[in-house]
What does this fold into?
Amino acid sequence: MDEQLNLIDTHCHVHFDNYDNDIETVLADSAVAGVNRLICVGCSLKDSQRAADFAKNRAGVWATAGAHPHDGADYLSDPMSADKLKKLLANPKVVAIGEIGLDYYRDITPKLDQEKTLRSQIEIGLDTSLPFVFHVREAWDDFWRIFDSYKGIHGVIHSYSAPPNRLTEVLGRGLYASLNGLMTYTKDESWLEAAKKVPADKLILETDAPFLTPVPFRGRRCEPKHLVETCKFLADLRNEEPAVLASLSTTNAVRLFGLSEESLA
It folds into this structure.
């Protein structure tokens, strides 16, 4: 019988309406699988409030607050955005600013608006002691230009999917790299090579549920319980024991996000 893993899903969206009809079952299944703690990540200020409300009375569940780069236009059009974000970040269940960043893969928000939104949120976040959860997709050079114009930023690159040279840039700035189910089916060998190279003290795991469902569950809605499959795949890729990788990721997540020992189970 396989050893029970002790995992934290550091990035999921189970507060989305995708789970409205069976959320308690999803959380119970997560705990049974050994994924005992979750961080629900906000994608807009409205969604962040929903994540915080979802986490409020649930042991082992926390939230983040921030506006995804695709939400940049809405963030900038609301004169109360800064005040709303500051209020959310003061919530004791909110453990990070995010997910924020740049995304040039889809032409949804103009690049300038993305930069303004990112800078606004970094500047607000730096007044707290909270880590940042960054989303970076096909925008590394502009992201580092913005990132390097500030001091004192700590956090994680969510859903890391880039070659080893980008990992060197991430690690050189003291950031963590978070891996998910995308690694179980990517055809990009350079991404897998980078996944092998993430140092033990800088690696955390996530699902990004309901997205990026790992093999062998492709085609289904992703859930926190599926983090077990990602952990096993990455352990094999890195020539490590799953329980060791799970323990490392959990230790790193607790350190980065300041999580307590309370759990879903």
